[in-house]
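Risk register update: the risk of archive-format incompatibility is retired. Evidence:
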Amino acid sequence: MEKLKNILFNKVTIGAILLLLQLSWLLLFFYQLRSYSTMITAIFGLVSVIMILAIVSSKDNPVYKIGWIILIGLMPMFGTFLYLISANKQPAKKLRKAIQESEARIEQQLERVSYPQQSLPIAEEVKGISDYIASQGTYARHGNTDVAYFKLGEDMYASMLKDMEQAQSFIFFEYFIVGQGQMWDGMKEILIRKAQEGLDVRVMYDDLGSLMVLPKGFKAELESQGVKVVTFNPMVPYLALGMNNRDHRKILVIDGDVAYNGGINIADKYINVDSKLGHWKDTGLRLEGDGVANLTLMFLSVWDACRKEQADIAAYLPRKSVRAKGYVQPFSDSPLDEELISENLYMDILWNAKDYVYIFTPYLIIDHEMTLALTMAAKRGVDVRIVVPKIPDKKAVYTLTESYFRPLLEAGVRLYRYTPGFIHAKSYLADDKVGVVGTINMDYRSLYLHFECGTFLYEVEALKDLKQDYEETFAVSEEVHLKELGEGLLKRTGQAVLRVLSPLF
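Archived output:
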């Protein structure tokens, strides 16, 4: 009885019920208005036409537009309303303005401090894309950065705890999911202890990402112990503008000298404790040296925007000098501008690859441009391989992922299902030279709606470890073949419908 009571009266259940009631009321309201008079019906039709024209003229990807155009065409006012609150980037004006102002202050400060800029020489084959990334924010490319690659979350977790224990000045902690359990408990103890020792300890988490798994009294407990906390884009039990813009980034910065980035959230399944989807495979990076600065500045730009603070940037930049081969370029991608940094980087790698491109992604929900880049690379003779999960976490999303198998396989792309369980890693590797490891899924949410981050790698030693991980993963995964897909009309029709509506997922 107590368990049932907790389910019925918790924040998530109540919020979901309230949202469902609002959606139902709005749908009924718009239906009743349309049936009230032909004049109102005509007005609704005109509004839908105006909205469709606005969507068509926007800079968004055409495939992203189609789903919304269909929905608005079928349900003019209701579809328009849903688009405005869930897909349109414009309503989040307050958040966008705050972040832009924060970034501008940081850039002004960088002009007055000793900070490595993006003028470092780099091979012509990647100079264009590297310069593009650098031009979109404080994302300079850096040498003098040691990179360690982790092929499992539990390995990275052990390293994170060790570095956190050695913190002397500050710890910046930003994650999409923070869930109660063994992983969080180990980190919480260190965060609180370091805050009590006088270190600057800051924790930022996404409210939606953590809503179902957040420890009870999370924020109050941390703040009472001296830890500063930001809840990013708090969820409210009503249809709010900008609620779809989630902070999907994973960043841990220690003393400005060491940082972690990758797909690993803070919950037990990420370290293979209590995973219900078989073996949970996730990956990440440890950076030490100049390249850490980019991740520090990413964190501060959002933190300062949320807290209305103005950080002294000089106090948080790297202090250690590290000699290492190659270049790193951590970057962030925002849903509040017109630049699709992540997708552009992914496609650039595919268009310029000569030998191979290997990809880890839990979700494969791609637009026409990405499909073309993947298939054309394969048709050019590039060995393109993609690993997706064998055991899905979301069945509808996995069905949608499978709908892309046929055109990719027909073009020569090789697809693998991770047999041991669920692969949550997000990475690219091309020609032993170029790699990306980060938080960016190959789906519309990551590429269009979420705050994301990743690390662009060029000729760093850790790429050898990344390649070895790919080879080991291929060996334990099952390859997908065309003959396995079947020709069922019902299935293919359903997949076609899902692909049209994929931007709505």
